[in-house]
Structures are given as structure tokens and as C-alpha cells.
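INTERNAL AUDIT FORM
Audit reference: QA-55
Scope: verify that the stored structure record matches its stored sequence.
Auditor: D.O.
Record contents follow.
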Amino acid sequence: MRVAIRADGNTKMGYGHLFRSNTVARALHESGFSVSYLTETPEPASSVCIDQAEIIEMDGRDELLSTVRELSPDAIFLDLPDAPVKLQRTLREEALLAVFLGSARNTLACDILVNGHFFAKDEEYKWVDEEPIWCLGPDYLPLRQPFPSLASRSKKCPQELERGIILMGGSDPHNLTPAAMNAFEGLGVKVTVVVGPGNENIKAINHTRDTLGGSYDIQRNPDDLPIQMFNADVAISGFGTTAYELIATKTPFVGVTRNNLERETADKISKHVGVPYLNRSDSCTRLRINLQALVSDHGTRVSLRDRFAELVDGKGSKRIAREIKARLDL
């Protein structure tokens, strides 16, 4: 069986769609599927996706349809920022269609809807034609390796913190990393400052380190990032895919929303788990106050760790792959 996965990613839009869909690609490949990636960003896709995936460059929806017809896949997995109902209907005519959407903003015309957000079951969905199979909530949260393995490990929550980590995404276009470094100042914590592959603000980050002094270890795209996230006692992070990866590692964090979509996501997640968060336009002082409050409140950090462990078990991608395969086997 063959699955065609439609997803894009780059330093401007982020890599979240590629990372997320690739975890599903891996699970499908392990279930016996051959995988083809249909993407407008072939170089980032090649750097992220499993080696066994065929990367096919395409441009626009007309070329998508012709490519799908040429491939004749058994299933299509769509992971884009937006999935108009017309596009869904067109693709559904060609193969079983599974769609990942993080909200109910699009009317559905798919066979399977996947929404791994904590708040997925709270959304009010609309659909045409047949009602889709619902894969909703953190049981269907796709996480890249080794986060599924880390989610199964126990984690201590010490009274006195030793390690912090700053994660502002692959590119940090708003240059929020220096503000996060300032927020850690004076806490006596060793801080790993992660600089993503597309981050062009390294001079500002180095200048902030030199100005502050203290213990800031600047690392560009480290290979052992998941382990460092698990070993951290506290974090400051953007509120994209990385936030869910921190939840999988059971690491308490202060979130910073970098756009309206992340703000909307953070507002909804806060109803299920009390992660403190701010908007990118908020002051450095407010970020420092929120971080200091989290650092000083051991009970809150223990509660967050335990709630994170309760919500995420790391098996979402395998469940998604099983649903797709089961539907094809009918």
C-alpha cells in the first residue's frame, strides 16, 4: 500500500507540519506502507523526513491533483495550515483522505480527521457528505522520536533547579531568545540556549550572553535536543510543536505565543493544563516575573509534571496509522 503525504515547512513557516507528519509517515512505513511526500519545500522535507520516503516537489493545487493521480495512492495524509473543503473533496475522490487540523475552522470532507490537541473534543466541527472517523485528543498526538520513548520515562521534579532551556523554534523570526535569556538572569540556573537551524539572530544572542555573564550554553540545532529537554528542570518555549514536546518530556515551562494561531492554541490548552504563557509583545519584565513564579513554586511544577504525564503517552502516531490501515482493510 502507498500513502501520499502533503506537507510543507521552512524557516519562515516553521517545521512543525513536517515533523508532525513525518512521525505518521514513520508509523505507516512500519505498518507496511510505501511513503511519498508531496511538498513545495523539498529541501526541508528531505532534511526532516524518513529516508525511505520519496520526496516529490510540486507547485500549487493543480499540480497536487495531477501528481496524486499519477501516484494512485491508497491513502492521502494532509497536514497543512489550511484545508479548504473543496481541496478535501477533490482529494477524497482519489483515495482515502486523512486530514490533520488543529481547529474546527474548516468544514470537513475527509474520511478521517486527526486533531491531537488537548482541546480537540471541545471543538464544534462541521462536515459535508459522510461523517468522518474522529481521532481527537492527545491519544492521537503525533510526536517525533525519541519523544514517545521519553514520554514513558519517570521524571524527578527537584526543589532546587539546576538546568533550564530556551526553545524559540527553528528560526525565531521575532528574536525572542535574548528576552528569554534575560528572564533567567539571577536564578542561578545553567541555561541551554537552543538556536534553531534557521535562526539568523546569533549575534544578538551572543551579545546578550556576553552582557549578562552567567551560565548560558548556546547550541545550534543540537542532535541530543530531546534528551536535553527531558533533563531540563524548567523551560521558556514558543507555543508551537515544541510546547507539546516539552509536555511529553514532563518539563514545566513558560510559553510565549508568537502569532495569533499560537495565542488561540494557548488559550484553549490553558483550560486543560495550567501552563503560564505570554504574547510575544509582552514585556521582558513580565516574562521574568512568570518564570520566577514558576521556579519558586515547587507544588505548581510537580502538578504540571504529573498532568503532562497523564495527558501524553507518546503513542499517537501509531494509533493514527492503525486507523488509516483499518479503514483501508474494510
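Auditor finding: record pair retrieved intact. The chain has a mean pLDDT of 94.
Action required: none
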